[in-house]
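User: I'm putting together a small comparison set for a docking exercise, and I want a reference complex before I start. The sequence is below, and the ligand is adenosine-5'-diphosphate. Could you produce the 3D structure with the ligand included, as structure tokens?
Assistant: Of course. I'll restate your input first, then give the structure tokens for the complex.
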Amino acid sequence: MSKKIVSDIDPASLAGRTVLVRADLNVPLADGRISDDRRVRASLPTLRLLTSAGARVVLLSHLGRPKGAPDPKYSLKPVADRLAELLNRSVRFVPESAGPAVRTAVESLSEGDVALLENTRFHPGDTANDPELAASWAALGDLFVNDAFGAAHRAHASTSGLAEAVKARGGEAVAGLLMARELRFLGEALERPERPFVAILGGAKISGKIDVIGALLPRVDRLLIGGAMANTFFKALGLETGGSLVEDDRVEVARRTLQEAGERLLLPVDCVVAAEIAEGSTTRVVERSQVGADDRIGDVGPATREVYAKEIAAARTIVWNGPMGVFEIDAFAEGTTAMARAVATACDGGATAVLGGGDSAAAVDRAGVADRITHVSTGGGASLEFLAGAALPGVEALTEGSAA
Ligand code: ADP
Ligand code: MG
């Protein structure tokens, strides 16, 4: 897959040109304030490239899941303010995402100006991939830059729909710098990993990640399993899991996976358990065969951390998705923190690590090592779909390019 990238375009051709940019500015908001601006910051390189070349930037994004109608709770206004601070230039917020107000606002933009349109999902046509809505945006300019990796796994009017509409009018749809970076790191890990290649999978459920396991198993040298996902594997081995989170309808697929994987798949050898997974619970460390009928498994144990850390230390390529335990609670965070440290240390030593998943990103932040990890993906669902080998509509729709 080689898609044209915004940096492949001659900057001289951008001056005064209206450029549509779809970013993923879907940030968590609490009381109208942005509680984590990672996605806004991740969109800056593309915006800086375009504004410094003198483009007139029309920025589109969704935020949250409004029900196809305006809802002040999901307004992008706070994002416009933060973006202006970070870009150090004014960002015009347009309180509509389609219609005459948008056209008027776009017509008044000068070279290097940025206008952020209101949440694209205030129109039901966005998620429905309405061609008319896409065409109304495409009428504003002849270059579309899709930088919204986090939304690339959906065929929406503001993603693949807009790309198709711009191309249909003879324009180009290219990848933004963040999109290109995401595709490069995830793609290289899958296509030409330096070995040993170690994948770490955890989190709440097998169900959402079974395709990822299936796609990764033939490629990796080791697959380290943690989180509640491990419990379903324990059950497949006939072990007691007590009151732990187990997906009974996935035990069979877990059993088959164990058979196919052989010694490439590692399961925790010990666990941190408690009667309740709650703040202040009294915890014990037990071997995985010693989990009691009243126990709940909340984290991987210290012996597991040691085994996994050794595998990680030997790795040259690491893909990680999903925490090892209920890291939101201190008593069950140590397994995830230990993995985060091991991955960061491997990166210090020259290994390449790519981390995907919203909770996983929060976990490495909490462990204070996010900056040392090669690439922390901004796309949770999109990175999982990519790792599972699925085509991403938002990427597929882009113009082919010469870049590798
Ligand atoms: P990501 O967002 O990185 O893809 P997931 O959403 O799949 O990760 O999983 C994260 C969640 O999994 C966290 O909220 C964490 O508390 C939970 N989790 C991890 N281990 C366990 C466990 N042993 N029991 C219950 N929940 C767990
Ligand atoms: Mg999650």
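The first helix runs from residue 38 to 42. The domain at 6-180 is CATH 3.40.50.1260 (Rossmann fold).
User: Thanks, that's exactly what I needed.
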